[in-house]
Amino acid sequence: MGQSPLAFFPNLPQDTQMQIFHSWRDLPAQARRASVALGNFDGVHLGHAMLVRAAHAARPDLPLAVLTFTPHPREVFRPEDPPFHLTTPAGRANALKSLGVRIIYELPFDHDFAHFPPETFVHDILHQGIGAAHLVCGPDFAFGHRRGGDTSFLAARAEALGMGLTLVPPLADQTGPYSSSRVRRALQDGYPERAASILGRPFAITGIVTHGDARGRTIGVPTANVALGPFIEPARGVYAARVSLEDGRVFNGVANIGRRPTVAEGLLSRIETHLFDFEGDLYGQEIAVSLIAYLREEQKFPGFEALKTQITRDALEARNLLAAHNE
Question: What's the topology of domain 5-173?
Answer without folding.
Answer: Rossmann fold (3.40.50)
